[in-house]
Amino acid sequence: MIHWTLVPSPIGDLLVKGDGEAVTGLYMEGENEPPTTGALRQDDDPALTAARHQLDAYFAGRLTRFDLPLHLHGTDFQRMVWNALLTIPFGRTTSYGALATKLGKPGAMRAVGLANGRNPISIIVPCHRVIGSDGSLTGYGGGIDRKRWLLAHEQEVAARSDGRLI
User: Fold this and answer.
1) I need a labelling partner for 67 at 20 to 30 A (CA). Which of 25, 47, 60, 101 fits?
2) What b/e readout covers 146-166, taking b as 16+ CB neighbours within 10 angstroms?
3) What radius of gyration, in Å, describes the C-alpha atoms of the chain?
4) Which of 14, 85, 100, 127 is an active site residue?
5) What number of other Cβ atoms are within 10 A of residue 88's Cβ?
């Protein structure tokens, strides 16, 4: 059974979904979020409770690395890209081209971009940390304003922490 909960945040309410064992989705207001029809609001699901606490700590600047059980459903290539997103350091960015090169597929920038755009667990799997090769803030399912906010938040927290990221 699919469970869900709402997490208030500075960038709007976040709909977090899970399967009873792990987080399976995180969607922002206005995003094409999957309907909750047939899903049970379950605010005491352990994975969703952990996600809620960790998201609260992230937005408060007390958490820089999520430690949650995740079930990423997608193609092998998508999962490879999403796992690579998890390695981008907090407060840092990379480009689609650099990510493609890191994956050993330097010509696959567009495919990396498409996979990045289909990331089902935004923020926790930090697709917002991927930018254009010229430094521009390109595409984000939650909107460019949210991407800008998330990046500024992380850079501010990283600067305050003086390299001691939690």
Assistant:
1) 101
2) bbebbbebbeebbeeeeeeee
3) 15
4) 127
5) 19
E strand or H helix that includes residue 28: strand 23-28
pLDDT, tens digit only, all 166 positions of the chain = 788 889 999 999 999 999 989 999 999 987 665 656 566 676 678 999 999 999 999 999 999 999 999 999 999 999 999 999 999 999 999 999 999 999 999 999 999 999 999 999 999 999 999 998 888 888 787 889 999 999 999 999 998 876 555 5
Residue 127 bears catalytic tag: yes
Which helix or strand (DSSP H or E) is residue 98 part of? helix 96-102
Residues contacting 7, CB < 8 A, separation 6+: 13, 14, 16, 51, 52, 55, 56
pTM of the model: 0.90
Sheet with 40-41: strands ordered across: 23-28, 14-18, 3-7, 40-41
Cβ atoms of residues 83 and 76 within 8 Å: no
What is the pLDDT, as a whole number, of residue 32? Answer: 62
What residue has token string 């922002």?
A: 28
Hunting for tokens 């994956």 — which residue is that? 103
